[in-house]
């Protein structure tokens, strides 16, 4: 096992140990808040509300972390697909195209207008060497795939005849 995998495994085991401790404490708190528990009346309402707020915040934080992980995973999958498409097309790979760099914030309208202008200005008949990263990133509505030779079209296993 490599050093990086050992370190990651250690971090994951620490997280699970902390989660186990937290759920044990949460179970004890739930028992104290159970109406059948004799000490239930001794727990102030402010503490119950604080517990509820802490659990809600925990859920929101976990959702944010999960979303970041999903976004990174999708980015890695997209980059892998782009790399594969470039290799299939016989185009040279550049690290700058595959590795996602932090992008400055640009409004969606600017992106749409810029991409529509660049798509409209692309020639309809292209050679396989003329396929650009923008063409690979463009949605189906933005690209004239009819102008591409059949050898240049990517087959995603569609059975609808297109």
From TrEMBL:
InterPro entries: SANT/Myb. GO terms for cellular component: MLL1 complex; NURF complex. PANTHER family: CHROMATIN COMPLEXES SUBUNIT BAP18 (PTHR21397:SF2), CHROMATIN COMPLEXES SUBUNIT BAP18-RELATED (PTHR21397). This is Chromatin complexes subunit BAP18.
């Amino acid at each position: 096992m490599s050093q990086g995998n050992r370190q990651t495994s250690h971090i994951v085991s620490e997280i699970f140990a902390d989660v186990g401790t937290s759920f044990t404490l949460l179970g004890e708190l739930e028992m104290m808040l159970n109406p059948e528990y004799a000490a239930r009346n001794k727990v102030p309402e402010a503490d119950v509300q604080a517990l509820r707020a802490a659990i809600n915040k925990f859920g929101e934080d976990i959702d944010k972390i999960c979303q970041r992980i999903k976004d990174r995973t999708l980015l890695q999958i997209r980059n892998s697909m782009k790399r594969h498409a470039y290799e299939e097309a016989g185009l040279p790979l550049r690290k700058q195209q595959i590795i996602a760099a932090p992008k400055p914030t640009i409004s969606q309208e600017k992106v749409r207008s810029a991409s529509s202008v660049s798509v409209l200005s692309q020639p309809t008949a292209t050679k396989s060497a003329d396929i650009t990263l923008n063409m690979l990133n463009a949605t189906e509505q933005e690209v004239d795939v009819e102008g591409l030779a059949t050898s240049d079209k990517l087959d995603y296993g569609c059975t609808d005849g297109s």
